[in-house]
């Protein structure tokens, strides 16, 4: 039924492309018969291809983060820290002065205690008489 030359050509094609002869013949006959039956373009499929113009707008957004610093608050805090350091220094000076004053008072107290002890040893009554 199939012309010998056509069959040889199909076999050669299948060998070169490593295809199954049976599947290739069935596929070719089905495609050819469909074209024979319905024509090159099927009548039922009347679709129009309309060219559509596509306009693409590409918008590039660049976002840059810039750090802006306001050193006003930082400077105020630094000034406050310096003031507190000076106060601490002043308080240390006052503490040292008070400590020295206290040591001096303690020394004077010891002198007074010694004086009191001496006087007790030499006690006289209110008329100036000793016991």
Secondary structure blueprint with pairings:
Elements (H helix, E strand, L loop, with lengths): L3 H14 L3 H18 L33 H50 L10
Can you describe this structure?
The chain is rod-shaped, with a radius of gyration of 60 Å. Among the domains are: 4-38; 89-122. The protein has three helices and no strands. The chain is an all-alpha fold and 131 residues long. The longest helix has 50 residues, at 72-121.
Roughly what percent helix?
55-70%
Q: Compute the number of strand runs.
A: 0
Helices and strands, in N-to-C order? HHH
The Rg value, from CA coordinates, equals 60 Å
Quaternary organisation of the protein chains: single chain
Shape: rod-shaped
- Going by helix content, strand content and strand pairing, the class is mainly alpha
Outline the biggest β-sheet.
none
How much β-strand is present in the residues?
under 5%
Give the N-to-C terminal Cα separation. Answer: 168 Å
- Average pLDDT, to the nearest integer? 81
Number of H/I helices: 3
* Low-confidence residue ranges: none
